[in-house]
């Protein structure tokens, strides 16, 4: 099977680098699966779990806010933050979740704070979800 | 030099204490500088990649008239000023502040506004009544993207809303450990992103990428992020510069203390010898008086 290199970078560091068989991401227009030889594309990414299938097993990475760029020879993910399951601070994420839930409840829908709280909530949920994958394996 | 030896000894001791402190500060700054430099390196691929993608979109899809790319007549300017929280960094903050003052000279208060990062800059401008609209203080030595996200968000949003017609970033560029240069850089509108808009013929690049959901949507998302990334990498550079400046100035302070200790030791020895000589003279004088 042909492989393609994938790289996930955030403003702070390079999070992940590997040779992938298949990459599954949640793009702006829905889920997208990418294999070697995919046509060049740039897509926004939703706050979601990015899945990478490699010869050495499957990897899941929590990404929030970013882009996926597919080039003929390479895939790059630019994310505001990205974490491997074992890097996720579960306590912090659950605290963030509670905080965000409270805020969503308190603030009126439609204003900017509510929107922010919703985003924070989905980030926290995403992290918790990805962290669970590690323990399940 | 009629100082008594006890006073001189006391001064030497106090200078020595100060020297120990400055020496420790220098070493701490050196260690932090190394880490800060690493972080600058690590942040580079992200910014570089982003520039590449934006460049290819902007040149290809003809959406170069995105509001964040368009130049408007400048009625109001926003300055993002990166200073430090703590002093003892030589002329680091003074340089930045001077640069800002030169920039705003002759402008009235409603023609510009300041976004300040760092306590030193904030204190200066606040005390003198400059129009500060945003501030961030108490950043850690290894700042994260989240730390400056709120200020970056504000800046980008205010520009998009048309409150400011241009945004200029003022920070110390890191050249090496002993040289930092204050620079002003136009952050918004994002001009010459990718740097090749003009050379590429329209239509040639369009087929290079597909965009999901659409080129405009991607650009809409990407440009604010790019501006935030620019602020972040400037912040990282500023941090590296801060530690460089601190290291140099504390090194100089340590050297000065050594010099001072040398001078004081000389004075002390002279005073001591003078005292001994006087004593001998007194004894000799006394003995001779008895012999007669």
From TrEMBL, chain A:
Boundaries of every ATP synthase F1 complex delta/epsilon subunit N-terminal domain copy: 5-82
Membrane topology (UniProt): Peripheral membrane protein
Keywords: ATP synthesis, Cell membrane, CF(1), Hydrogen ion transport, Ion transport, Membrane, Transport
Every ATP synthase epsilon subunit C-terminal domain range: 86-132
Keyword Calcium: no
Compartment annotation: Cell membrane
Chief place where the protein resides: membrane
One Pfam family of this chain: ATP-synt_DE
Keyword Cytoplasm carried by entry: no
Superkingdom per UniProt: Bacteria
PANTHER family per record: ATP SYNTHASE DELTA/EPSILON CHAIN, ATP SYNTHASE EPSILON CHAIN, CHLOROPLASTIC
Membership in a protein family: Belongs to the ATPase epsilon chain family.
Annotated function: Produces ATP from ADP in the presence of a proton gradient across the membrane.
Name assigned to this protein: ATP synthase epsilon chain
Gene, per the UniProt record: atpC
UniProtKB/TrEMBL annotation, chain B:
Keyword Transcription applies: no
Keywords: ATP synthesis, Cell membrane, CF(1), Hydrogen ion transport, Ion transport, Membrane, Transport
Domain of life: Bacteria
Major location category of this protein: membrane
Cleaved signal peptide residues: none
Entry similarity comment: Belongs to the ATPase gamma chain family.
Name of the featured protein: ATP synthase gamma chain
Organism: Tumebacillus lacus
Gene from which this protein is expressed: atpG
